Amino acid sequence: MLKNTPVLSFDLEDSEYKVENKSLMPYSLRSSAFDPEAAESLTDLALAIRERDKEIIRYLSNRLLPPTRANSAEILNAFSYIRYQSEEDRAKIAIESCAISCSDSYWIKHDDDQSWTRLNPRKRIPNEKMIRIALLGEKHDLGQLKSSPELTTGGTFAKAWARTGGGFYLYKRSGSRRESEIEVEVSKLLDCLPVHHANYEKSHFNGETLCRCKCMADEERSVVPAEDVFVYFGKDRDKFLEWAFQLDMDNIYKMCVVDYLISNPDRGMQNWGFYQNNTTGFLTGCHPLFDHNRAFDPELIKLEDGGESDLFPNQSKLETARFAMSKCNMYYLHNPRRDFFFDPEHYESFMHRAESLGIILR
Predict the structure, then answer these.
(1) 247 burial class (0-12, 13-18, 19+ CB within 10 angstroms)?
(2) How many helices (H) and strands (E) does the chain have?
(3) Helix axis angle, 344-357 relative to 317-325, nearest 10°?
(4) How far apart, in whole angstroms, are the C-alpha atoms of residue 111 and residue 126?
(5) Predicted TM-score of the model (pTM)
(6) Which of 15, 141, 150, 328 counts the most CB atoms within 10 A of its CB?
(7) Tens of pLDDT along 42-82?
(8) 116 — phi, psi (to 5°)?
(9) Where in the chain are the domains?
(10) Residue 300: is its pLDDT beyond 80?
């Protein structure tokens, strides 16, 4: 389901599969929507059905939180789920828990008693015990709770969704490098540039300093990771990038500049992407940049060329940023203040790189 609209009906045990609305299907599944009449033989039909089932299982498996996320075992245990081992195990958990997510409006409906109004995680009050499990790794009895967006929230750091002061936020803890403070630091720096980004602010929980940002998705828009669109294009990097630059060249090139400025080692295809219109299914442009808590990587700071580009593996971050500067309008809206940086090395690196790219105040 996409909110209240059926998009795909399936039964993996019986290999039953029916596309209800291809234009609204999850992006990574759209290219594999299968037309049985296209099969030229029974062998082709059997192979296609098997591959189709694998792709659905893979989609559901990837929707579930990764085992590398802090406190993932505690989250699964709270729902009496065993620590999964295979894609099939993860897919079953996603199905049983309805696969609700705060990043989009897709979910799995089992019966007519279920509705998006009742399950929509962005409208519900998060379970306080679930927050403590996800953030702190505590053990609690969740009673009759059967689903939670914590089961579909990715990343590696401890985090939890919570409603505070009328807003719906993702709270995130630090690891070993004061990552929450780095996230806030980078957010302040991006405020100085004409860059569309999620706003992170300092917060506290259980006596500990955290960072938080508002949910980027809403009822009209879903977040689609670049990786999902990459899969849609058959993992053909050239075709994917040609399409992406046609859609939103300015913001993609600005992302390349930002990653060099902040020595970002973590711009994988899950850490940038696009907004999808939930009514039409169309992708409308890049969503705000987010998840910079690993910025100012000590090893990348030492490299004058910034290390390898994530978008163009045969180039350095510096080479990509220099080319990007010729394609986008990057300048200071106001000068970064020294007190935005909690580490002098971060200040020196950022300012040196900005100067080398010719970023000035306008």
Answers:
(1) middle
(2) 12, 9
(3) 50
(4) 23
(5) 0.94
(6) 150
(7) 776 677 777 888 889 999 999 999 999 999 999 999 999 87
(8) -65, -35
(9) 8-157, 221-357
(10) yes
